[in-house]
Amino acid sequence: MLKKDLRLKYQERRENLSIQQLDDYSLAIANQLLKIPIWDFSYYHLFLSISEKKEIDTSMVLSILQGKDKNVVLPKMVDHQNLINYLLTDNSIIKKNHWNIPEPVDGIEVPPKKLDVIFIPLLAFDLQGNRVGYGKGFYDTLLKTCRPDIIKIGLSLFLAEDLISDSEPHDVPLDYCVTPDRIYSF
């Protein structure tokens, strides 16, 4: 299936979820993450959810990271395709941007090469680890500046598609994708 068709399909599937389903799925995904061997690292990049788009609630993942005393790094959009990464601290101020994405106002910048694990938002993914986001390229741009060994984990409310037929060479595949019912490893 083409990316544009998958975007429409999965945005509609999200819209049809109840708040209870979204909460249940988000908790199940957070619990699934505990089964992956990623907990010996220091710097974890985590996106904050756009509640209006019924994205997975990452607050539960954030609680796990904080409970394990990890350095949590949050993204901030700075232009049409770039993200700056800020360390989450007690002094971090989070505000929604013009797309309703919660992000830090400012803070201690963390260079992309320092990141060990990155949790990536997505709408859909396939059995090869290719993903479909909103189509702006923020995470593809960020991933090109990270270390090659960074662990890339997609968080998905739904199971994999067989194939995203228009994946491109510049698309960076995932290492894992975690759903409420399954962990995919690529």
Automatic annotation (TrEMBL):
The UniProt keyword set, sorted, is: ATP-binding, Ligase, Magnesium, Metal-binding, Nucleotide-binding
First-tier enzyme category under EC: ligase
Q: What SUPFAM superfamilies does the record tag this protein with?
A: NagB/RpiA/CoA transferase-like (SSF100950)
Q: Which reaction does it catalyse?
A: (6S)-5-formyl-5,6,7,8-tetrahydrofolate + ATP = (6R)-5,10-methenyltetrahydrofolate + ADP + phosphate
User: Which Pfam families does the entry link to?
Assistant: 5-FTHF_cyc-lig
Species of provenance: Arenibacter antarcticus
Family, per entry:
Belongs to the 5-formyltetrahydrofolate cyclo-ligase family.
Q: Which cofactor does it need?
A: Mg(2+)
Q: Which GO terms describe its molecular function?
A: 5-formyltetrahydrofolate cyclo-ligase activity
Superkingdom classification of source: Bacteria
List the InterPro entries: FTHF_cligase, FTHF_cligase-like_sf, NagB/RpiA_transferase-like
EC number of this enzyme: 6.3.3.2
Protein's recorded name: 5-formyltetrahydrofolate cyclo-ligase
